[in-house]
Each structure stands twice: as structure tokens, then as C-alpha cells.
Amino acid sequence: METLNFILPPSNYVAVMPQIVLVATALIVLMIGIFKKLVNASVIGYTALAGSLVALTCVFLSGQQAGPSATFAGMVLNDGFSFFLTLVICMIIVLTILVSLNYGRFFENIKSGEYYALVLFSGVGMIFMATAGNLILLFVALETMSICIYALTGFHKDQLRSGEAALKYFLLGAFGSAFLLYGFAFIYGATGSLDIIKIAGFIKSHPQILHFKFLVAGLVLMIAGIGFKISMVPFHMWTPDAYEGAPTSITGFMATGVKAAAFAALIRVILVPLAPMEHSWVTIMWVAAFLTMTVGNIIALVQDNIKRMLAYSSIAHAGYILLGFVAGTGLAQAGMLFYLMVYAFMNIGAFAVVALLCKKGEEFNSISDFAGLGFKYPALGLVMSVFLFSLAGLPPTGGFMGKFYLFTQALRSGYIWLVVAAGVNSVISMYYYLRVVVIMYFKPQPAENAIVLNSVSPGIVIALAAATTAVLIMGIFPSYFLSLAGNSIFSLM
Amino acid sequence: MNHLSFPILSTLIFFPLLCAILLMFIRSEGGKNDELLRKIALVASVVEFLISLVLLKYFNDSTPGMQFVEFAPWVRSLSINYFVGLDGISLWLVIMTAFFVPLCVLCSWTYIKEKTKYFLISIFILESAMIGAFVSLDLILFYVFWEVMLIPMFLLIGVWGGERRIYSAVKFFLYTAAGSIFMLVAIIYLYYFSYKTTGAGTFNLLDLYKLNIPITTQLWLCAAFTVAFAIKVPIFPLHTWLPDAHVEAPTAGSVILAAILLKMGTYGFLRFSMPLFPYASHEFIPVIAFLAIAGIIYGALVAWAQPDMKKLVAYSSVSHLGFVMLGLFAFNIEGIEGGIYQMLNHGLNTGALFLLVGMIYERRHTRMMDDFGGLAKVMPVFAIFLMIATLGSVAVPGTNSFVGEIMILVGAFRAYPVCGVFAVSGMVLGAVYMLWMYQKVMFGPVTSEVNRKLPDLNKREIATMLPIAVLVFVMGIFPGMFLHKMDSSVKYFINQYQQKYEMYEAEKSGNPVATHLKGFKIAVDSDAAFHNGVYSRGR
Question: What is the rounded CA–CA span in Å between residue A220 and residue A225?
Fold first, then answer.
């Protein structure tokens, strides 16, 4: 009878409280969705919002607990890094739901329970990706996130390009997942463990393994697999199509949440257990960083669709963040986290503005649709300009500070030419960000088919105001956020 | 050190910003509050100017160091500080910035009819950033202000500009941004270098001055800074954005651009690249001097060929800024003081010319010289002011530019006589095209019937021009009043420069590179020669 004696491992439920809250909310939202006819449709969205706010509060309350620890038999790591990423991802979820509430006024299907449930579930996946201590959990989390996102991408069921985008994303994403899993298998083969901490210990005690082909193959495949998710060149092909086809509220979510989670996973698996292999991956990262930012920026120059432009810009930003891997110092990794946070705010903000420009069942995605909006809606123009200038890396915005921090650390590690290339890239990027500003402020609004903003919901106003404030505060008073990011990276288990 | 307990520099930086925020909350639908907005802006900018005059009262001209210093940590983890201060070099530039903003508000009173509120907000944000850039002593703080300046200027050109405004605005923005990104990389490298050598990375300019940077590194870093500043000055052949930006910008934009933004480049050389990289700067002398001369002559010739008055003035800027660069890179007290003085003079004269061209454009909606003629009879007051600005611009004795250009030439002749000879030709050409323009527009018969009914300047316009006209003469007749304030700072600057240069040369002694530099004997004793009557000052 002893075999049946199942012992629950000692677990720290507080550590996964945000996830629990999010899952519970998702289930409730699904339930409410069933009784759609009985209740007001907006209840669904507000329930999701309330749940995600509770999750955010949980993150704050749990705070940075004393000392990093592993729980659930090493499956979940509870350290400063988890705290930081959970915080960022929860904020992204809240902002996404706020944007969706407004976006749902133009598209009936967005109001459904499934939509919000999928957002929340994928959010849970993201958080687990960032907190996973075991490669299997990491993979499951990645799939949880990805499958939800595939479905969300195709959520405009009546639009052909939405379905096309979902299919493309799904097929290429499946490849990416397969690569990733294959890589994990190699690593398991080389080290005999799937537990990140045990792998780290094994590699430390067997340094000769560093030249073992299996481990190198595992590393490369893993980078490729996660590279798909962060749209690292040359694994970026799906990005523009998926971003363009997806509902705009989801595009913002994809561009920030998925990227944050995937970068978190990359940091977890590469920087901790595989840190001794630095000589192998620094070159890969160097080339990837250079290609990613250059390709992203150059193709973005010729885009006329703002969602595609922002898609390429998000590729370029992945390149800037990769600088942190190349630089390799602890502060550089803190810079990556800082950048991920700023990037989340400025990018969701920009997509939120794009999501505002809709009418019933139709999105306005052409850059020329912004003509004249700057003076017609000064507040809208102002926040959009702040986001764009921040994306371009102009002071005094958070985007500048993030770039500056990464550049500083990369230079400190001696990668002068890479930093020069990144600098040239930011000048290139200024051109296309500026183009939107030019069109917003310098071009008159066309007489026919003029975009009229109907009364905006208070939710989106709060979201935009919060994102703008965050971007500016992170640019003017970055100290707090830098130390937050620094603490989190140094407590990385 | 100055013991003014009041944080005057922060006030100067942030007061305009505060005004901009205040203006944001005034409703302006359909332009119904425009008059109120303009009045508030005028009062606020005059108050700002008065505050800047307080600097003059408390400025101690016997110490070369930074005064009114304020220091507060900003980003501790990167040791970025909010560190501002003022010395004799930046004093007048700050005051001039505050001086021009009220004039810009005045000259736009009727010129800017649309979106007045946003126009004024842009001007105020610009003023904040400009003053901030002039007083920053932390490289990152400086860079932040330097970049922030771009956005309002970009909007000024792009929203209220002429026909090709979008092209010009984007060109202006990208040129400057492209230059400054290299400066940013160089700044970060400096930080890294200070970290390596002293163990504590710093962006503090005064600490970075003390660094001993290896020569090759210095050349690279100096090149990066030079590109950024050379674009802003603009030094030939990086000047192509300037005529476009000037011509398309509204009058106030052109005035600020010419009077203050261009000075940002020359100031940058003086404050950053020359003292930080003395050896490399010295190495660059031949290049800069050649380009300065090329700019002087090229700018003058192209200006001569312009049918459009505003373009003529714009190209004349290229020529005048060549003079300034020549003076600064002479590395002697006449040259540098002359250079700084000429920065102020060019601001006044060119600012005045742009204002006047703007006034006539407002009346006739053309700036082509062929459309005018005989205006002196129709608009006598206008003619007087244009005369003063023209004379100032061609450096007639008694006007401000005369002092500046003579000092520059004296400096240039001492440092590199051949360049001096060429520079003089620029002065002659300057007289040619300016007087040629004046003659075409003002004298002769009234060619067009429309011109016969042009109203002369009104009270507001006279109020705009009068302060400049008075200053042109004051600065021409009593230059000592102005130069005296910068004496000790400039002397200290040259002293430091020479010490460091000699140190580097000693380090490099035996190296063939140093030999060809023997010709440039930089003399500290130039002070003595200077006061013994090379140019006697009206103190």
C-alpha cells in the first residue's frame, strides 16, 4: 500500500498566487460567457479586469520575498527575477484588458468570454515561463501561452487575413516549439536532468562537458526555438503577418507579453545553467543582435501599415535587447529587464492608440490615417508622440534610458562596433517613427473618410495615461526601476 | 564659487517649461484665447529674461571656474548627476537665449495665426532645452537637453513652416540626430574609460577634463564629438540642412535657429571637444581651419547668388559661422574671445535680418529681391533697421561684428597667417552681397505699385527691433563690458589647454607627428600682447 501513499511536496502557494488568481478568473469569465444572454456583455470584460488587478495586487503584496527559493519540487522558482517578470506581465495583462474593453466596442466577438479567458490563460503561461525551474514546465508554459495566442490571433473569424495570420503563426510556432523541445532533449541527454538548478550544478562539476556536442546542439536548438518567439532574425518571418492580422489589442499583447516571457525564459536557461558556455553563445548573440536590429529597422522604413511597421520595429527592439546578452555583465542583464519593462509600456501604448482608430468592424491601420490627428485630438497626439519618441530612443523617455543603459554595458564589455551599429540603427529607426509624427502633425486631415473618435471609454484613457506616465517616469527618474531590475537579476537562481 | 542661495539656473531652465505646461491648460478652440496666450507668453518670457539678468549682477568675473553650481544625483547607479553651472563662456549665451525669446513671441504676434497655443508651447520647451544645454556640466544631462531641443524645433519648422516644410523638418531632425548618436557613443566610451582608469565611471564634465586619454582614443572620440557639433554649427560641407531649415521655418524659428541653435555647435566645441581632447583638437586644426575657410568663402559666394532674401541670410550664416570656428580653433585669447563675441554678434545681426525679412514677407508674401526696390522711400523706419542690421553684418567699425571679426582675424593671423588672408576675403565678400541686397531692395525707384502702399513698421515691430539695434551699437562701442566677463574663463581655458597639450606632446616626444605642429606655438603670454594694444578695449 505504500506506493499509493502520495505525499504532496511542501509548496509555497503564495509564490504562484497571481497565476492561481488568473486561472480562477479565466474560468469564471468562461462561465459568465456561457450565460451571455442573461448578463450584460461588458460584465465579462470587467470581471477579467478585476481578476487581473487582483493578480497584480498579489504580486505587489507577495513582494520580493526574503531570499530566492524553489518550490513545487523545484518546478517553480521564487526569486527576484520571478517577481519582476510577474509584475511586468501582470501589468501587460491589465493594460491589454483595458485596451480590449475599448476595442470590443467596435468588434462584437472581442466581448466574448473566450477572448478574455484566452488572454488570461496565455498570461498564466507567460508567468510560468518566467518562473519555471524545470525545462518541462517551461515548455508546457510556452505551449500554454502560444496556443492561446494562436487562437487569439485568428479571433477576427470573419477576416481572411486574421485566419491567415493565425495559421502562419501556428505553423511556424510549432516548428519553433519542436526545435525548443529537441534542444531540451539534447540538454537532458548531456546533463541527465531537466531541472535548471541541477543542470547548472552538473555543468559546474563537470567542466569537460562544455565541449560535448550534445550540449552545444542543445544550446543552438534552444536559442532557435526561443528565437522564434522573440522574433530574432532569421526566425522573424511570421512576425509582420501575425501582427498585422491579429486584432490590434492582441498585437500589443503579443509584441510585449510574449517577448517579455520568451526573453525571461532565455535569460533563465542561458544565463544561469549555460553561463559557462558563454564562448559558444556570445558569438551567436552578437550576430543575431546585429542582424535583428538592422533587418527590423531597414524593412520598417518602407511600411505603410502601422501595425506592420510596429511589427518590424518590435523585431528591431528584440535586437537591442539581445545586446544585453552580448555584453554579458550583470548590469547589462538588468538593462535588458529595464528595457523589457519600458518596451512593454511604450509598445502597448502605441498599439492602444492604433486600437482606438476603428469604426464598427473595421480598423484603420494605414499610417496615412493618422493625418491631422495630432491637432484634432491633442491628447491622443501627445501620448502617441511620447510613445514614438520613446521607441526611437529620444530623451527624456524611458526608451532612451533603456537603450543608453544597454549601450553603456555593451561598450563596457568592449563591443564598440556593435554599439556603433546599434546607434546607427536608432538613427534609421527615427526616420520611420518620425514619419508617423510628421503625418499626425504636419498633414491636414483628409476631407472625406475622416476618422472621428467617438467618446473613448475611461478604461483606455487610464491605460494610455498610465503607460505615458510610466514611459516618462522611467526616462526622467529611472533609478528606482534600474535598481528593481538590478535586484531581480542578481537574485536569479 | 558664487554664494547666491537661490537655485537660479534651475529656475532659468524650468520656468519656461512651467509656462509651457501652464499654457497647455488654457483652452484655445477656434483661436479665441490667442491674444491672452500671446500676452502670457510675452510676460513670461520677459520675466525669464529679467531673471537671466540677475546672473549678470551676481556673476563674479574674477574667477574662471563654474558659478551658480547646482548638483544633485540623478541616476545613482550610472552616476549621472543633475549638475549645472555657468562660467564666462556660457554666461552671455544664456542671456542671449533669454533675450531672443520675447522677441520671437513679439514677431510672431500676427505672423502665426493657427495653433498659436502649440506654437508658444514649442517655443517655451525649446527655451528650456537651450538654456539647459548651455549650463549642463554632466554629459548625459547635456545630451538629454541637446536631443530635447530637436523636437520643438522640428515641430516649429514642420507645422508653421513654408511649402517644403516637411522635407526640411525631417532633414533637420535626421542630420542632427545622426550626428549626435555618435556623440552619445563617444560619451558612453568616455564613461567607460573613466571607469577603467579611475575606478569610478563618471559623466561629470569637470572630472572628465582631468582624464589623460591615449592619443588614438582621443582622435576617435574627438571625431565623434566633432561630427555632432560640426553638423549643428554647421561646418561646410555638413551645412546642407541649414538653408532648407531656415527658409522653411517661420520667422521665430529662423531667429532661434540662427541666433541660438547654431551656437550650440560652436559652444559644444568650446565646452566639450576642445578641453576634453586637447591633443586631438590640435591635430584637427588644419582640417577645421580649411573647412572654416571653405565655409566662409563658399557661404559668401552662394549667398551672393541668391534671389531670395531669406536664403541669402541663411547662407551668410554659413559664412559667419566659419569665422567663429576659425577664431575658436586659433587657440589664443583673441581668437577664442573673438569667436564667442562673434557668436553673440551673429545672433543679433542675423536674428535681426531674419526678423526684418519676416516682417516684409508678412506684408508682401514674397521674399524675392526682384519684387522689391525703392522701399526706403515707402518704409523709412524699416530701412533704418535693415541698414543697422546690414552694417552690423558686414562688420562696419562701430558695430558689434567689427570687434568680433577683428579679434578673430588677429587671432587667426597669429595662429595660421595664410588662413587669415583667406578669411579677410570673406569679409569683403560679405560686404558685397549684403550691400548688394540692401541696394536692390531699398534704393532705386519703386518698381511695383503694390510696394507703394506698404505700411511701415508698427509699434510692436519697432519694439521688436529696437533692443537689437541698440545692442548692435552698444556691443560695437563698448565691447569691454561684454568681453570683461569672459576674460578669466577664457584665459583659464587656454591655460589648461596648453598645459594638457604640452603634456601630451611630451608624452609623444620623438614622435614625427609632433614636428609639423611646431609652427603653432600657442602662447600663454598672448594675454600681455593682447592688453598692450593689439586691440584696445573700451572699458
Answer: 9
Specify the pairing of strand A69-71 against strand A362-363.
unpaired
Nearest alpha-carbon partner for A261 in A57, A88, A405, A99 = A88
The enclosing H or E element of A186 equals helix A160-191
The span from the CA of B297 to the CA of B303, in Å, is 10
**Cross-chain Cβ contact B182/A395 below 8 Å:** no
How far apart are alpha carbons A235 and B371 in whole angstroms?
62
Please give the single-letter amino acid code of residue B470.
V
Closest partner residue to B182 (CB to CB) among A423, A443, A486 is A423
Any chain A CB within 8 A of the CB of B76?
A: yes
**B491 and A CB contact within 8 Å:** no
Q: Which residues of B100-130 are buried (b: 16+ CB within 10 A; e: fewer)?
A: bbbbbbbbbbebbeebbbbbbbbbbbbbbbb
Interatomic CA distance for residues B500 and B460, integer angstroms: 51
Would residue A383 count as lying in a domain? yes
Q: Spell out which residues of chain A touch residue B165, defining contact as CB-CB under 8 Å.
A: 442
Q: pTM to 2 decimals? A: 0.90
Residue A402 placed within a domain: yes
**Taking the CA of residue B417 as centre, how many other CA atoms within 13 Å lie in the half-sphere pointing to its CB?**
2
For residue A446, whether the previous peptide bond is cis, meaning omega lies within 30 degrees of 0, is: no
**Closest residue by Cα to residue A424 from B181, B45, B211:** B181
Q: Identify the CA nearest to B85 among candidates B484, B489, B487.
A: B489
* Counted domains in chain A: 1
Nearest Cα neighbor of A396 from A380, A385, A408 is A385
Q: Domain range spanning residue A305? A: 13-490
B95 contact A CB<8A: no
Inside any domain, residue A180:
yes
Residue A1 counted as domain residue: no
Residue B81, beta-bridge partner list? B73
DSSP string of B232-297? Answer: HTTPTTS-THHHHHHHHS-HHHHHHIIIIIHHHHHHHIIIIIHHHSHHHHHHHHHHHHHHHHHHHH
Q: Please give the ipTM for the structure prediction.
A: 0.89
How many angstroms separate the CA of residue A407 from the nearest CA in chain B? 8
The verdict on a CB contact (< 8 Å) between B185 and A412 is no
User: What are the structural domain ranges in chain B?
Assistant: 301-539
pLDDT by 10s per residue, chain A, length 493: 455 666 666 677 888 888 999 999 999 999 888 887 777 778 888 999 999 999 999 888 876 555 677 888 888 888 888 889 999 999 999 999 999 988 888 888 888 888 999 999 999 999 999 999 899 999 999 999 999 999 999 988 888 889 999 999 999 999 899 999 999 999 999 888 888 888 888 888 888 888 888 888 888 999 999 999 999 988 888 999 999 999 999 999 999 999 999 999 998 888 888 888 888 888 888 999 999 999 999 999 999 999 999 999 999 999 999 998 888 888 888 899 999 999 999 999 999 999 888 878 788 888 888 888 888 888 888 999 999 999 998 888 999 999 998 998 898 888 888 999 999 999 999 989 988 998 888 888 777 666 777 667 888 899 999 999 999 999 888 888 888 888 888 777 5
Q: Is the peptide bond before A234 cis (omega within 30 degrees of 0)?
A: yes
Cα torsion A200, A122, A98, A52: sign:
negative
Number of H helices, E strands in chain A: 20, 4
Is A442–B159 a contact, with Cβ atoms under 8 angstroms apart? yes
A-contacting residues of B 186-245, CB under 8 Å? 188-189, 191-192, 195
Tell me how far apart the alpha carbons of residues B231 and A459 are, in angstroms, rounded to a whole number: 45
What is the grid cell recorded at B29?
Answer: 478652440
In chain A, which residues have their Cβ closer than 8 Å to the Cβ of B155? 441
Q: B363 CA to chain A: closest CA distance, Å? A: 25
- Residue B421 sits at the chain A interface (C-beta within 8 Å): no
